[in-house]
Each structure stands twice: as C-alpha cells, then as structure tokens.
Amino acid sequence: MTVLHELALTVSEPNKLESSVRSEPRLDLSIDGSRPLGAVVPTGIPRLPDYAIPLQPKLLKQINAMHTKEELLAFVGQCYIILDPINLVTCVYRLARMYTGIRHPEARQAWKAELNESSSFQVLLRTIQSHMLAAQLHPPYSQEVKGIDARCVSNLIWALVKLDLALEAGCTGNEVIISISPLVLRLLNQSSPQGLANLLWAYAKLAEPPVEVISSIMSQMTDMLTRDQTGSLFDAQALSNSIWAVAHARSKLANFDGLCGAPGSVSAFLVAIAISANSMLKALYTRLDLAHLSAFLNNVEHKFSCQALVNIVWSFATILGEECGQNPIISQLFLNSRKEAIIRLRATYAALQTQQSWVYHLPGGFNEQALSNVVYAYEKAGMLDRELLQWVFSVATLRLDRRDGPPSFKPQELCTLLRAAHLDICEPQPFLNKLARIVQTMPWIVRNWSPSELNELSRALGLLQPTLLTPHQAQAQQQVQQHAQVQTHHHAHSQAQQQAAAQQLMLQVNALTAAGMGMGGLPNGGVNTNLAAELLAAELHQMTIQNVLTAQLNAAAAAVAAGMSYGSNGASGSQTFNPNLPMGVPADPLQALRALQFSPATRPLGAQGLPPAPVSWP
C-alpha cells in the first residue's frame, strides 16, 4: 500500500483525526509579518498538519524509489502540501541526480526545458522557499520543523546548481539561493566538512558569486582544516571541489583576494588545503600492481580519485602560476602529486596496452581530461619535467588508438598537449605520428575545430621527422622528391635554352655592329649600337628575374610538400580533405602556400624545475 492510499484511508476516518485536523490551518505560502518575531505559532507560517508528520519516513522512501521526472513531479503535484522541508529538498535532489545522469547534450536540454515548464516544479521551488524564509524570519521555526538544518540547505543549493537553474542572474534558482543566503551564514557552524565544500562549490558556480558568503565559508573551512590533526575531516573530493571553487570564483571577481575577508585569508585557506592534501597523499603509500590492474586502479580511485589529484594541482596553478614553486608547502604538494600521477600513468598505460574495451570505461586512471589538465597545471607552475610529460604522451597515444570508436579527446584537450609538444622537454613524435594517421583516416574529427585549434594542430604536426613517417607517407614524400628532381632537370634545361638564346642575341648584335662600322659616310651605318646594347641588357635582366621567380616557386612547392607535410591539411577551417590524396599532398595549392605563413610558437620553453627523477617509482 502506497503512502497516498494510506493517507486516503486515514483521512476517511474523521472521528479519529477530526480534532487534530481542525486545529491545524491549511498550508499558506505567504509570510505574515504582522506578528512579532519569536512568536510560538505565528499566523501565515507554513506548517505541516499533525497527521502528516508520521508519514514523512514513508514519503521519503517513496521519493527515493522514483526514477523518472514525470513520476516525481506527479507525486509533488499531489503531495507537496504534506511534505516537510527535508522531503521537499529531496525531491529537488533526486531531480538533480536524474539530470546529471543524462549524457547527450540535446537530451539534457529537452529534459531541463520540460522541467522548467512544469507547474508542479515551480510550486515545489516556491514551497521550499517559503519554508526557508520562515526559518529565516522566525528562528524558532527552524528548531521546530525537522529538516531545516545545514545539510538540508547545502543539498538544496547543490541540487539547484547541478540542475543549471542558478547559473544566470535573475533566474528562479539563483533567486532562491540568494534569498536563503542569510540562513546559510547562520547555519555555517553546524555544517559538515562535506556540506561546506558543496556550498563553496555551488556559490562559486553562480553568475555573481556573493563574496561575503564565500569568505565566511572559506574562513570556516580554514579553521576546521587547521584544527584537524589527523587529516580525516575532508576527503580528497571535498578538497578538490573547494580549491576549484576558489579558482573559479577568483576568475569572476576582480580583486577577489582583497574583498574576501581579512588580508591573508585566501593565502591561509590555500596553505591549509595544501597541508591536508599533502597528508593524504603521503598516507597513500601507493605501490604499482601490474598483475591486478583493474583492482589496483579501483582501489586508488576510492582512496584519492585521479580527478581530485589533477584538479587540486590545476587549481593551485590557475591561482598562483609560477608562485607555486616558491611556497615550500605548495611546492611539496606538486612533488607528491607528481609521484602519484606517474604511478597512475604507468598503470593506465599498462591497462590500455591490453586493448580491451573495459579499460576505456574504467573509473580510475588518467582519462583525456586528466591528461590535458595535468600538463596545463605543471607547465603553468613551471614544474613540468621530462618524465611526467613523456608518460602523458605515451598514455595519450594509446588513448588515441581506441578500438571501440573514435578518440574521445576534445579539441581544447588535444591543443594543450599539442602546445606542450613545442616545449622541447621530451620527444612528442610518436603521439604526433598517431594523431596524423587518425586525421588522415578520419578527417571529419577536425571539421568543427576553430581556426586557432586547426592552427595549433598544423604547427604541431609540422614537427614530425621524416624517419617517423609510415611507409605510405614515406612513399608520398618519395614521389614528391622525384617530382622535385624532374622540376630541377626542367629548370636546368630551361636555363641552357635561355643561355643559348642570349648567346645568339649577342652574335646578332656583334654582326650588326661590325656591318655598321664597315660602311662609309655614316658611323655604324645608321645602326645605334647603344640601343642594341640596352636591348640586350634588358633581355638578360628579364631572364634573370624569371630564373629567380622559378627558383622561389620551386622552393615553396618543396616546402609545402615536405616541410609542411601535415600542416597544410589543418591550415584553415574552409579547407577540405581529399581522402584520395596522400598525407602531405595538399588538395588546394593556394591554401598550401598560405599555410607557409603560420607563425612559430610564441610560448616560452617550460622550466624544468624538478630534479631528475629515478628510473621508476616504488
């Protein structure tokens, strides 16, 4: 029997509940401010009927059992008036979980549009808001109603942000979050470490993060981290979300460090996060187990996820840049994270070598985003070294060679690795060679790339050495060289013909000059020798210019065919790929010549700030 049926049977017995029901007013969503604050039962405050209070556990169980938006919204439309705040918030939380489980962008957009158009969902949000405002305006109400606590508020704000309902100023979700911010500040002392991390993450995602709230949350977390001697209050994901939130909010707010609390508050927060993360990383004692890769990756992912590991160093590098190496605590964090990252890169590499489909869906290990972010973090911090980058390129090469579908790299992720190929830290040729073959066989994967991304691809693929080319590509280059030899022979033959013509012209001029000198009465016999000499010089000058232009065009063609063998295919977004042409032979000569104008890399060489690493880590 469902809770709705039980409720219907209960209400059908008026003799048992008559006095109780009559003593309780209907739920009124309006707040009556005419009564003094602190009144025991102020009029207009939303309260549950007495008969609904014992039903809350069963209602909660029923909410958690629902798996579709339609089912949950229909339930809300019938029962919102008898749901307490914790069950109302659970409804929003369940909807957020459903939404995050949708992977296809178009399906997510359609799902969210239907949710926003639902009248039941709007009633749900307004009912929650009325309960929260009642708790704000009448503090005894929050003590009397079960569910309005720090966890309830944290889950509500997290769910609204996850539903993408609070990312724009003025939208309903943003309005709800801002309106209950005073309640959030009042409940901070009761918040759990995970709740604080969720709140900080959610507020940082807002279009205009409230500095006062973020500053208070950071101060509370700093105190908790400082008092935490065991390093067990915050897990790795909470640390990752917290430091990411600060990096994200800092990018939106000018003078964030000056506005966010007393001087040094942000620095104290960063150091506290680094100390806690260092303690957790040192306690891992990770030992690579190549014999049981799946179990090993699952185990280390549970202790300290790869995403958290990379996001922490990414956030520190985004906030501090090369200053990361100047702070001993943060510098030690990068060293510890590097050691752990190389162990997991080796495990990921070994797992990918098996070429089994389960490897690409394994929760542990370095995926495409993690590879890109770890390179960005260590390069920006000035601490990217040869061993780390070499392992990243090795894993990325295997990630490109997927057997169950095309590569999963996003253009931005690939471009981060392509820029790293210019740093002269390690040899990127195997990775670039694999990428070149993929672009050749699947040219559609770069058709939606922006011009800047195609430019980055072209510059990086231009680094390929001829010795690393495939036999097909080597054959194509050999054909180009043969064509160049034919052109050279033709050029030499043309020069010989031009020299013969010049000699013949010289003989004609000499003959005319001799004939003129032999005639009496008029010098030169009426033939202007100066004019003849000028004509000869002009003819020779024109022949010289033609020879120079021919040499320049031949050099340009050779450079396009050999030096820019792969770059011409990614020169611009408008260039089409001809699958019948070998890689390195452009379909459009004009665009190939334009490709020669690509500027060299402008990024500085990455600083090798770490000492030489041992051959292998324990």
From TrEMBL:
GO molecular function annotations of the record: RNA binding
Signal peptide coordinates: none
- One GO process term, biological-process aspect: chloroplast rRNA processing
GO CC, any one term: ribonucleoprotein granule
Name of the featured protein: Uncharacterized protein
